[in-house]
Amino acid sequence: MISSCAIRIALACLALSGPARALPTSPSERATLFAACAGRYAAQETFWGRQADEDRDSDTFDALTEAVMPAAIDYGMPPAVARNAKFHAWRDHAYLRNDAEFSPDQGRRSRAATGWRRN
């Protein structure tokens, strides 16, 4: 049974993803995608959502990452690739949060607050 949390995550991904794209075809691309989503959600929960531990949306993507990892490893992907994708996604969101709250440039604060990051 699909939980309401998973449905919300799927709808959010659809709304924020832009043009419709198919899921990656290789197991390693899927693992990297799910790990990056887990990192973004974990950062959002840490900084903006402040959800209780039992209600974390990132847990769904952690579970998806773990589910596809055996196939990704068999495909030739080192496990560290998924860990790096999760870390980098988390870090990028931390930068966005920092810009949204502390940048002296109002335009940069506005873009960061809506999720756009421009260097």
Key traits:
single chain; 119 residues; mainly alpha; 0% strand; elongated
List the helices and strands and how they pair.
Elements (H helix, E strand, L loop, with lengths): L3 H13 L10 H23 L8 H18 L3 H24 L3 H8 L6
Helix pairs in contact: 2-3, 2-4, 4-5
Keywords: Signal
What would your notes on this structure say?
The chain is mainly α and 119 residues long. It has one domain. The protein is 72% helix and 0% strand. The chain is built from 5 helices and no strands.
Which consecutive residue ranges, at least 5 long each, have pLDDT under 50? none
Number of domains: 1
Any idea what the shape is?
elongated
Helix and strand element order: HHHHH
Terminal residue distance: 42 Å
User: What would you call the structural class?
Assistant: mainly alpha
- Average the pLDDT over all residues and give the rounded result: 77
Strand content bin:
under 5%
Query: Helical amount among residues, as a percent range?
Result: over 70%
The major beta sheet can be summarized as:
none
Rg, rounded, reads: 15 Å
Number of strands: 0
- Tally of individual helices: 5
Q: What's this model, at a glance?
A:
This protein is mostly helical and 119 residues long.
